[in-house]
Amino acid sequence: MYKKGDFHLHTTASDGRLSPGELVDMASKEGMDIIAVTDHDTVSGIDEALEAGKKAKLKIIPGIELSTLYQGNSVHVLGYFEEIHNISSEFKNFLEKMSEYRKKRAEKIVDNLYKFFNIKLDYEKIIQDAHNIVTRPHIAQAIIDAGYNYTFKYIFTNFIGDSCPAFVPNKKLSTQEGIELLKSLNALVVLAHPVLIKNVNVEELLHLPFDGIEAIYSMNTSKDTDRFIKYAEKYNKIITAGSDFHGLPRKNRDDPEHSHSIGEVYLDEEKINIFLNKLKDLSKK
């Protein structure tokens, strides 16, 4: 039924550049027939995406990319819901608290950038430009927009990446807690972009109760993809595919998280059916 799916996409509800409606329209034009909207730590763009999906005759999977920590290292967890109604008000309240923490975190990062690197930014403008959810890519973009001659890659490697001087960790939600939280809502839970995980053994993570692994990802080499597919087989996980599309300008092409296209990688019909069947089974629990 569905032949081409991208299960990792971002909108202006977090750090994407397209509104949920614009994202759906672009996905349709790119030949997708099923997508998941997976904004960082928010589901606020889902309703708009679902409405746009009806008009475009494009299947929308409500999703989220949840920020967690595993032994002090950043690990992102993708959660997928069969129905928007599966997302409880308690969970939305929890996400709202995470959003407020992100704002405080961003303020600390801005202070650290000035303290350690003499980089002066307008915090209020960053918050305004970020809309609901402020993330490190927003801050990196603000550095570039302020006229500092750095690339996204350099900023993350030297200033605001994990363990860098200006870095401030996100709200302390462990990976195990994040998985349990999503599973309490009957979500299908997937390890996001394993190729980007640093200082953690991916196989160790797969001993946690993930349902799947994002084995097909836009930053992978073919060897990476083969390795992660083998992990999926070894640990009995389903496979998902995601471009991690944000819609940021091509001038920041060196930043690996923001130079992808919708459908640059995708899940085929067979694997989509496995994904949907698993999602349906979980929602019955």
TrEMBL record:
Pfam families: PHP. GO terms for molecular function: 5'-3' DNA exonuclease activity; 5'-3' RNA exonuclease activity. Coiled coil: none annotated. Residues 5-70 form the Polymerase/histidinol phosphatase N-terminal domain. Gene3D superfamilies: 1.10.150.650, Metal-dependent hydrolases. PANTHER family: EXONUCLEASE (PTHR42924), POLYMERASE_HISTIDINOL PHOSPHATASE N-TERMINAL DOMAIN-CONTAINING PROTEIN (PTHR42924:SF3). This is DNA polymerase III PolC. It comes from Clostridium luticellarii.
